[in-house]
Write a structure and sequence with these properties.
By secondary structure, the protein is α+β, with helices and mostly antiparallel strands. Helices cover 26% and strands 20% of the residues.
């Protein structure tokens, strides 16, 4: 028993025994009061810069849920109406400086719900063909010495295994033999298989509920419609496109989806998402990547396109515009709303007045506190204190 306790005792080093040298400032009035004053002035300066910059960012929001009878999309809000198109007319009075970012927004949509957020198969989305199959098992062999690693490292090795891997019996073996199913993750249920038990690819609630409204923007010039070009390249996170998600290494890509079915609510398969750009299909489709990165709050917006080309590279000139909307995504069933947002950005990102106000409030509080502490110090300091 004593030997076991000694074996678990940390090494007699300065780090493990917490004997490293330390330093901390003496919190005297001569340090604290000027410190609060400097921090307050710095925060106010940053807050003014953030607030003024945010005020210069242009934002135009247009709601198109169609709940009101006066809405141009009212007829399309009926879920029984298919392939409905509505036109949203609007005007811009001054130059909307470019580059212009075009977003779609949803409200009362809880992508942060836990069961929804995990309803996908990461191995499948990484291009692992084993997760495109049904009912097959694969044998994995691990050295039993892994069971003597710290629990964290065991988790890294065995994270996809639901059973207790390192049992007492298995620790006595030279190797651990495990049989894992080759099929879509159980987290994808009920969108794991279709009614014929064929695997759904990509599976899960996130993929199945992918936003599918479409948009075309026209500029009205002398009574004629001029197309405003949308740029959909690079709208997803770089890490999602280059690291986290991959297509199967099969050519043509369509062959990788043999004996699988598309998500139930999708009009076409993953390898057909962008007929104009073969490189923008499958699991690295830009719109799919934007959607599958779930939002933290129930009211959110996601980037749809950028306006950076042609006559509109410098922005949207003043005038009349028509937004043609392919209305496909129902939201009234959960009391949600839909909108589109035109916005430009600055060095601080998008429009965010709260951030500047927060800096101003904290900076002001620091200055007020420094004044209060100075008054208290001047009134109650000890006579022998310098």
């Amino acid at each position: 028993m004593v030997k076991e306790e000694l074996a678990n005792r940390p090494d007699n080093t300065a780090f493990t025994q917490q004997r490293l040298p330390a330093w901390q400032p003496m919190l005297s009035a001569g340090i604290v009061i000027p410190g609060f004053l400097v921090i307050g002035l710095a925060f106010i300066g940053i807050g003014v810069a953030l607030f003024v910059t945010s005020q210069g960012i242009q934002v135009l929001e247009l709601e198109y849920t169609g709940e009101q009878r006066t809405s141009p999309c009212y007829k399309c809000s009926d879920p029984t109406v298919k392939d409905c198109v509505c036109n949203l007319e609007f005007s811009i009075t001054t130059l909307f400086k470019g580059p212009v970012f075009f977003y779609y927004g949803l409200s009362n949509y809880f992508q942060n719900y836990r069961k929804y957020g995990v309803s996908k198969d990461d191995q499948q989305l990484y291009g692992d063909l084993n997760n495109f199959k049904v009912g097959e098992n694969t044998q994995l062999v691990y050295p039993s010495s892994l069971c003597y690693f710290p629990v964290f490292f065991q988790f890294l090795f065995f994270r996809s295994i639901k059973q207790n891997t390192c049992t007492k019996e298995r620790k006595g073996m030279h190797f651990i033999f495990l049989f894992l199913p080759q099929s879509p993750s159980e987290y994808c249920a009920p969108y794991q298989y279709d009614s014929n038990k064929k695997p759904i690819v990509p599976c899960g609630s996130i993929a199945n509920s992918m936003f599918n409204d479409t948009f075309k923007l026209y500029h009205l010039v002398n009574g004629t419609k001029k197309v405003v070009p949308f740029d959909g390249k690079g709208i997803a996170w770089w890490t999602d496109y280059n690291i986290k998600y991959r297509n199967p290494s099969v050519s043509p890509l369509k062959n990788a989806f043999n004996d699988t079915v598309k998500p139930l609510f999708w009009p076409k398969a993953a390898y057909e998402l962008d007929p104009n750009d073969p490189a923008n299909n499958g699991f690295i489709n830009q719109d799919f990547l934007v959607w599958i990165r779930t939002a933290a709050l129930p009211d959110f917006r996601k980037l749809y396109r950028r306006i950076t080309e042609g006559d509109y590279a410098e922005g949207l000139p003043a005038g009349n515009y028509v937004l043609e909307i392919g209305y496909n995504y129902p939201v009234l069933s959960f009391d949600g709303t839909k909108k589109v947002v035109f916005s430009n950005v600055s060095w601080m990102g998008g429009k965010n007045e709260f951030l500047g106000i927060a800096y101003l409030v904290i900076g002001s509080l620091c200055i007020v506190m420094s004044i209060v502490m100075l008054i208290v110090y001047a009134k109650f300091k000890f006579p022998d204190e310098e």
